[in-house]
Amino acid sequence: MARLLIDNLTKVFPDGVRALDRFTLDVADGEFVVVVGPSGSGKSTLLRIVAGLERATSGTIRIGDRIVNDLPPRRRDVAMAFQHPALYPHLSVRQNLGFSLRLRKRPLSEVQRRVRSVSEQLSIAPLLDRKPAAISGGERQRVALGRVLVREAQCNLFDEPLAHLDRPLVEQLQTCLLEWRGWRRTTTLFVTHDQSEALALGERVVVLSAGRIQQVAPPLEIYDRPANRFVAGFFGSPPMNFLDGRLIAEEGRLTFASGSVRLAIDEALSRQLERRAESAIVAGIRPQAICINPSLSEAAEKRIGEIIGVVRSTQSQGDRVFHRIETTEGRSLLALGAPRAALPVGSSCRVQIDARQLHLFEAAGEGMCLTD
Question: CA of 80: how far to CAs of 65, 90, 167, in Å?
Fold first, then answer.
């Protein structure tokens, strides 16, 4: 195990595409960090550079006390799993798991011990004597994960290893990884495009877009206090609603105004944003804060905005129903409905917005958050 320090890493491909732009990250010894972002954001390029499979244009990578930029992959002491399991088809599961240890001439007893431990952890012990062709795709991916874990390298790298698995298996392997993290602390970079997976696995989450870091924080902070509009819109299912509007001064404090919508800003935040009065602003509102059948205290009702609209579609999630509402001004909002009670499409409804859960962002530039 070792600290991983990535400093001002930049990668520009020959065609001019800038995959990474001054990427800087300090991963503590034994820390599990998840890098998340959409396709093309630079996640896989980052891992390939750390592993030595791709060369950086500039910047440094330090693993432990060594700068490894010029070291070949075999000398970096990293283990990596990819989206697709690259197993040796002529070797058994047992031999695939222990291959890297035998290559490093580890004692047979140690190889057997590690293989047994990892295979039990990943529930693949009954498969040890089978060849990859004789097991399912999900089982092959578990073997690929096991091959990383059995290495006990200084740094583990995972490039979306759960991306092509069905949901029950994903949840099972996420549990395995969390248990493994608690048992053996290994410095880890885990890449995913799935925001729910990032929140479930990461001790810290790095949000990446177009090769640039948008925010680095613990999972709950990412969700509760997004740094900008990109992060706010990327995290959350269903995604956050956004309303363009202005901050106006009313009765001694600020109000967010967007057409007929009025949302009172609390006094502390009003003082903080006083200089932005009459400025264009974007409000972010999660669907859970827009309720068709709200249950709010009398004190809270003073900070509630009300909208009249028409139901255009419904989306059931079992115990919850979300409605796509079109307001009288033509705005589209996703709102939380009463449990197991979908409204008919085309029906009129009255929805309320809980301003206590409002996020405010700059209208220009990267849309930096104003509510922290």
Answer: 20, 21, 22
As separate numbers, helices (DSSP H) first and strands (DSSP E) second, the chain gives: 9, 20
pLDDT tens figures, 274-308? 888 888 999 999 998 888 865 444 444 444 567 78
The full DSSP string for 45-86 is HHHHHHHTSS--SEEEEEETTEE-TTS-GGGS-EEEE-SS--
| pLDDT tens digits along 128-177 | 999 999 998 888 888 998 999 898 889 999 999 988 888 888 888 888 88
* Nearest residue to 371 via CA among 349, 355, 347: 355
Burial of 91 (0-12, 13-18, 19+ CB in 10 A): middle
The pair phi, psi for residue 83, each rounded to 5°, is: -60, -40
Which tokens belong to 368?
A: 């930096």
Condensed to tens digits (0 to 9), the pLDDT of residues 208-259 reads: 999 999 999 999 999 999 999 999 999 988 899 999 999 988 777 788 888 8
Q: Which residues pair with 244 in a beta bridge?
A: 282
What domains sit in the chain, N to C, each tagged with a CATH number? 4-234 (3.40.50.300), 241-362 (2.40.50.140)
CB 241 within 8 A of CB 322: no
Q: What is the pLDDT of residue 67?
A: 95
Contact in structure between 55 and 9 (CB atoms under 8 Å):
no
Report how far Cα 71 is from the mean position of its chain's Cα atoms.
30
Q: Give pTM, 2 decimals.
A: 0.88
CB-based contact 256:356 (threshold 8 Å): no
Structure tokens at 250: 């009313």
